User: What shape does this take?
Amino acid sequence: MNRPIRNLAIGCMVLFLALLLNATYLQFVRADNLTSLGAHPDNRRVLDAEFSRPRGAIVVKGKPIAESTKSKDEYKYQRRYPQGREYAQVTGFFSRDWGVGGVEATQDSILSGDDSKLFVRRVIDLAGNQSPEGGSVSLTLNPKAQQAAYDGMRALGNNVSGAVVALEPSTGKVLAMVSSPSYDPNRLASHDFSAVSKAHAALLANDLEPLNNRAIETVLPPGSTFKLVTAAAALESGKYQPDTMVPGGARLPLPGSTVSLPNENGRACGGTKITLTRALQVSCNVAFGSVGLDLGADALRTQAQKFGFGQRYFHDLDDSLTRQAESRFPENPDKAQTALSAIGQFDVAATPLQMAMVAAAIADNGTVMKPYLVDEIRSSHLEVVGKTTPESLGTAVSAATARKLTDMMVAVVDSGTATPAQIPGVRVAGKTGTAQSEKSRPPYAWFVSFAPADNPTVAVAVLVQDAGVARDAISGSGLAAPIAKAVMEAVLNK
Assistant: This one.
């Protein structure tokens, strides 16, 4: 072999070896990396192929809230959301250019048909020369409760910021989850990609952040609803009973500070001394600030953590778009800050889901159940391939303490600050909250409740973050309690 031919042969061998090494690198070393060819954001071929496949339905009580229907264009199937705005933060969206969110994301492998749970069905479909189909995902939501929550928030106005969460206390099932303002996921799933880009840009530019799920992403001071945690810590300490007398004056001097803690109305709570039950009934800041000082920050923090503060426990929604925020109690508050923390102010912050869990734990004799949204997974031929089993996260308070707290919360609804939540013929337990924020913005209105008090089947938390009304018109009883009442009535079929 002469030299030029030999050099050419060596060159070809080197190129072939380089090609082989590169193919091996791409297919094995980088197979699971986001920058691999299969997942590269510019790989339109893969995106178009995925966008053209029929996805399984997301179902609530047998009716789809997300489904794929045949289309007359090159993509063959159109993702559709029949009640888009009502369920938007739950379903999320399925978009060619902007990915997926919500249940569409966390259950993507099931809905697309790629999950290993569907392997047997995929083999059967291939053997029968049928295209593999996605499985369906059934949610725990109660459609009447979801409707009541959505209508309640919408009645306050299209631009109202807030959220509603309802749980089944004994299991942790999410019965309703609504975030306001909402959006229409159909606009992001459209095959008109220019219109989709404009819709997505508008949502991102909206100062009210409609893509956010305030039920699990937003942490704000829970205000007086946190007094349930302080009351729980007090009863659990053994130093307090519902009839224990506590300070009820107009103001509480704050240790190490020149200011004092006043009651909301600036007046005494009915006397220099009142019972702990009465303090909860009228939401007495002085009483609970005093109890907080007596118990100390560590006891309050420990109690909050037992209810779920400082944890991430909800995994049924897309972490990349609707990340669950951790509710928090301050690490090292001084005595003045501890008094403020005991009434849900200073640096205490909670999600609506967390405050629903506080109410649900009291309702369930002190047991904190892990909240879940995905109930059941089925193949395209309706075989059940997965079902969620209720799971306890631990015990927040004893059953005896839970019963005492329940009676105290019933008093709040019967003849305290939460009378708008009364339901004829039903004992309702509840607690209002009006959390102060910056002087430049109005307070937040909160309400938590459960019913029936003797045999609870639903616990609710409502946050109205901004209703666009006058400052003196904002209260947990006036804005949030009527929504919670409607949700409870929907579950109870009242």
Q: What stands out?
A: The chain is about 40% helix and 20% strand.
